Amino acid sequence: MSLIDRLDMAVAGRRDDLIALTQDLIRIPTLNPPGDNYLEICEYLDRRLAAQGFQTELVRAHGAPGDSDKHPRWNIVARREGAFLGECVHFNSHIDVVEVGRGWSTDPFGGELKDGKIYGRGACDMKGGLAASIIAAEAFLEVCPDFAGAIEISGTADEESGGFGGVAYLAEKGFFSPDRVQHVIIPEPLNKDRICLGHRGVWWAEIETHGEIAHGSMPFLGDCAVRHMGAVMAEMETSLFPALAMKRTDMPVVPDGAKQSTLNINSIHGGENEQAEDYTGLPAPCVPDSCRMVIDRRFLIEEDIDEVREEVMQILRTVADRRATFSYDVRELHRVLPTMTEKSAPVVQVVAKAIADTMGREAEYVVSPGTYDQKHIDRIGKLKNCIAYGPGILDLAHKPDEYVGVDDMLDSARVMGRSLIALLARD
């Protein structure tokens, strides 16, 4: 029996274990924000991986955004050395999940198994991928104990809020340096026959328009900041949104609508603060002297970040030319440059062949519309040989009744295991 056949049998024999592992991970509610139960899930993974001979290290991201004594940002990095020298393959999964939201028909943290699917917040994004990578590594170790190189598995914090308490912190500490790690697979839910090469860029900013407070019955004595912001939005509708729609990329971004530049207005707030739910009175009659808008600009690898910012600044200058009392401030909140691994990269070639051999069809190459932790591995770790590949349907992420298919996890585990054979098996 070939090594590949033995691996496939080892993965298949772990079906029940894969289900139980995924359910256990879902049942630890690692909500972010605020960052609950990070230590608990890291300790769970510590026990699991240490039992398989991994050397484990729990790393707290002291001083990172969000880290506090109440909600410490814990991460785990586990490493299993082979019998011979060779390269290191690293599977990185984030442990945090987003808020539950409304509309669930199952317990969001119950991990219910129904019709071959495991339901729960984080099932798809991305505790199913984490479980599949662990099963793949364990199956590989069973059939190929005398491998060359090393396998690493990490569970990291805060990907859903930028990854600064997780992969960014670890990258700054050298955990993703090319002399330590040579291949990285991030099991994000991009579908089991897709390889995600990278992601678009992002520029978040807060725009604040200024006014002057006055009595609401005499608005002519004040200056309404909300009306100023309305003029900004009108100019965006007239000139910026049509211009963005004309920008197209050669990146294989999915879905198709994300092949253009986009801008989302995340939030707007002007005037008085909203009152508490138990407040039953009316608001005070005041002209708002401040209005704030947060924008989320996603841009393409063909665009320059300075040009992205300048487009917004030009909108504000245009409005200022038309409104005598218009004044504003712009505060950058977040920036990430686009990244895309070449199809010729070793990890891409290996995983593509494993997909073709496992699924009987060629791998599809895609780019994510939003960012994920590849940005930190690339920019901080200086490691280019990195992709996202994992089970799950991307459209289910952050939705009610999120689920991951058991068969999809098993197929992805086979792909990951075959990739380990190609990269680390001596023969």
From TrEMBL:
It comes from the Bacteria. InterPro entries: ArgE/DapE (IPR010182), Bact_exopeptidase_dim_dom (IPR036264), Peptidase_M20 (IPR002933), Peptidase_M20_dimer (IPR011650), Peptidase_M20A (IPR050072). Its cofactor is Zn(2+); Co(2+). The keyword Hydrolase applies. Gene3D superfamilies: 3.30.70.360, Zn peptidases. Belongs to the peptidase M20A family. This is Acetylornithine deacetylase/succinyl-diaminopimelate desuccinylase family protein. It comes from Seohaeicola saemankumensis.
